[in-house]
Amino acid sequence: MRAVLVVNPKATTTTERSRDVLVRALRSEVDLSVRYTRRRGHAAEIAREAADEKVAVVVTLGGDGTVNEVVNGLMAAKAAAAPDGTPPGAGRADTPGGSPADRLPALATVPGGSTNVFARALGLPRDWPESTSMILEGLRIGRSRTIGLGRADDRYFTFCAGFGFDAAVIHRVEQARRKGRVSTPGLYLRSMIQQYVMGAERRAPAISVERPGEEAETDLATVIVQNTAPWTYVGDREVNANPEASFDRGLDLLALRRLRVAGTTRTVTQFLAQNPDPHGRQVLRLHNQEEFTLLSARPQAFQLDGDYLGEREKVRFTSVPSALRVIC
């Protein structure tokens, strides 16, 4: 079985020695090629090349950003292989010969970032040695599952997207990390407070949600979209904005109409509850959505899988079922 290991050398929780251990472990099960990322977007290029080479498995060692790039590279390879180049889930009938996911390399994710939401949402242990052991067992016995993905315009995401406040917070965190700060829950909390005080979201809600055949929801302050639960983690604790979200269903959405101190604090507390059920007059929740569009009267911060992607005024979201096979 041929496999490619995509390594982000800047992964925050691994060392050169641990990477060597991982490589030896994987080579005990597969014919492995190791490729290191050198710049942003490089992991997507490597993944697409691996798909073109017909390898059986692509393994990632990095954080959620590396996983997102690899997934987009794999899905780009699938689209290129389609007779008309149409992205999966966009109305194209897939060709015979197995499911669409079966015609791509499987994905295996070794957590190497600071949070690793995607790997943990799949049920993999937080620490990379235990996750590697579980992945090796999956490779030996052929254990995998097929998951759905989300798509925002032309880019895929595995677990979440944000439009507005949460994406602006991620932007602040990324700016701090570029200055040498370490990603910690404290850094996120300080960034949230700064954005709450200085951002425009709480003063002038400007986002709308449009769905086919439904009346638009308007004057929203921020939107969280999930393809699975949880939304994120604080240490070992799950944070669940959309607790019913699942890889096996459509997309879930939570929006806040206002970001007032009392109401926002109550909602965040609900996110952290043992049995989360975010609700209230300022909360909008939509479950198992196939398609919707977010629009804004002014540019909004936008993120996918915890990666800030700039500002947008419009993003179309679609659910892509049974898109990818994963080893877990």
For the structure shown, list the relevant keywords:
single chain; 328 residues; alpha+beta; ten-stranded antiparallel sheet; four-stranded parallel sheet; 8 helices; 16 strands; 30% helix; 33% strand; globular
Short description:
The protein is built from eight helices and 16 strands. A hairpin with a 6-residue loop joins strand 8 and strand 9.
**Mean pLDDT over the full residue set:** 90
Task: Give the topology string: H per helix, E per strand.
Answer: EHEHEHEHHEEEHHEEEEEEHEEE
Instruction: Please work out how many helical segments DSSP would assign.
Output: 8
Binned, the helix content reads 25-40%
Instruction: Indicate the proportion of strand residues.
Output: 25-35%
How would you describe the shape?
globular
Low-confidence stretches: 84-97
Number of strands: 16
State the distance separating the first and last CA atoms: 17 Å
Question: What Rg do the Cα atoms give?
Answer: 19 Å
Structural class: alpha+beta
Largest sheet: 10 strands, antiparallel
